[in-house]
Amino acid sequence: MTAEIGAPATTxxxxxxxxxxxxxxxxxxxxxxxxxxxSRLRAGGARVGRATAPVTGVVSRVGWLVLLVAAVSLGxxxxxxxxxxxxxxxxxxxxxxxSVPFVFGRMxxxxxxxxxxxxxxxxxxxxxxxxxxxxxxxxxxxxxxxxPVGAGVAEFVIPxxxxxxxxxxxxxxxxxxxxVIVAGPAVSVRGDQLGLLRxxxxxxxxxxxxxxxxxxxxxxxxxxxxxDLEGEVTKTITDHDISFHALRAYAPGDALRNxxxxxxxxxxxxxxxxxxxxxxxxxxxxxxxxxxxxxxxEEFELAVSVLxxxxxxxxxxxxxxxxxxxxLRLRTATPTSLLDDTSRIxxxxxxxxSIRDLVREASKRIQTPSVVxxxxxxxxxxxEFRAVETVFGPxxxxxxxxxxxxxxxxxxxxxxxxxxxxxxxxxxxxxxxxVRP
Length: 437
What we know:
Blueprint: H1 2-14, H2 18-56, H3 61-80, H4 83-99, E1 109-116, E2 119-121, E3 126-134, E4 143-149, E5 152-158, E6 166-173, E7 179-183, E8 187-191, E9 198-202, E10 207-212, H5 224-227, E11 233-238, E12 243-249, H6 261-267, E13 271-278, E14 282-287, H7 297-316, E15 320-324, E16 329-330, H8 335-342, H9 355-363, E17 371-377, H10 382-387, E18 397-403, E19 410-414, E20 417-422, H11 428-434
Parallel strand pairs: 2-10, 14-15, 14-17, 17-18, 18-20
Antiparallel strand pairs: 1-3, 3-6, 4-5, 4-8, 7-10, 8-9, 11-13, 12-13, 15-16, 19-20
Helix pairs in contact: 3-4, 7-8
């Protein structure tokens, strides 16, 4: 009797009430309506912003602050009758009105930016030239041009120019550190002296200056770490090579040129040749850019110089090369393209993968490399370099170059890997000549 009474009660408790269902439906409808209203408001605000951009775009941050203070002051004056705030609000509004005429006027300039040279080595001198010509039919009024150069901004005062005449300004570009320095765009600025209103006109596109890392010139024999492996016989069996290994039965799809006809005639069955694969030079050059692997910025720059120096010599020796970092895949078609890309290498504060994962991802896009060179810092754990060995088979040699400024140059073997410690770039050529995989 108890079970019969309890069963309906349990079923009723599990069945949602109609009131709860209705409330839930209304809540979903209200939420959907609210989302739609917010989307429409955003779209409307974006359209209004685009329509008013020619007007609101000339108001600087200082100008917006002045308008806000003026509105608050006039509101306090109207609400509480404080004459002082009315005077303050009227003064600020008057200042905005007085600055309006300064943004009017049109200039007809032809502006050019030149960097000489466009590529330098860190520490070398680089100069820039800003040329402005009046392309209008009437004389121009004095104006001010701003030119961003790297992290700074250079300001130039352009005097009044007659039609067809020009004006030049020279400037120095800081090249103390490897980087890609962007000069431009050149922007003319019209506005009041207080900076309330500011109208900018862009005249040029940005121009890049490549500040290459300092490199060491390696002797051609220094690429012996790759050349010594050229032509070595591996344990891989292939159908296309020069080192004969054995014969096997013909299988559909085998090339007829590999059929050994004399043996086939003797056995009455088609037999094809097999070969032992010889090593083809493919070098994978990797730099781990995690900031935690380097003791200082100078050490990081030394590592980049090691990477660039080895890469340049491998390219000159016409060896197949792939060069990567945690975030970049560097071009290796020419020495210049490689150096340009090394100028963009920056340390990663967070998000850097392990060295093993970095090498594994890089090797997916190329043939199995004969030599893997990993460049890192003095704080990188040796266990990470040893882990690279597990990515490849026994036919791949792993060499680690550790940049450690001021350390004694040395070559050590850790498990099956070679670890080269570089304390100065001047030592690199001698160390590379001593490395034999």
